[in-house]
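Sequence and fold:
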Amino acid sequence: MADLPPERVTPCSPFRRVGVDYCRPFSLIYPHRRCQPVKCFVAVYVCVVTKAVHLEIVADLTTQAFLASLKRFTSRRGRPDLIMCDNAKNFVGAKRELDELRRLFHSQQFQNAVTKDTADDQIEFRFIPARSPNFGGLWESAVKSFKTLFKRTIGLHTLVYDEMQTVLV
């Protein structure tokens, strides 16, 4: 087995180097729209050095929603120096929701917008190689753990936005 990459073993403060991935869609009820549940996603940010996890609600799969999630993350945890993410080619053949996520991460417009926005903050944004989920195994396992624990805790209930935020925090 090869050595771990330098960004994983070089000591630093928590959340200076993170990996990010999205969880499947969850049903959520907004207080002002009590009648109909809407889809939301959860962005899982994992510190690649300490393995600490930060969870954020993301309303949809747009670039603006991801950047808003990133801004909430940086305002709570500080500005990271490095953000790593899969380029989602490994989602080929998955369910319809995962296909939407793949198209989002795969689009050059999304990558350019994220790179431009993070360049202003001097954040390096790195996409892992295609079809190499082992490069993102750290945050993939955090996603799996979150989904398992969330399902055991909530079950089949549909949460209101404030309840979901409380569970994630």
Notes: Residues 88-96 have pLDDT under 50 and may be disordered.
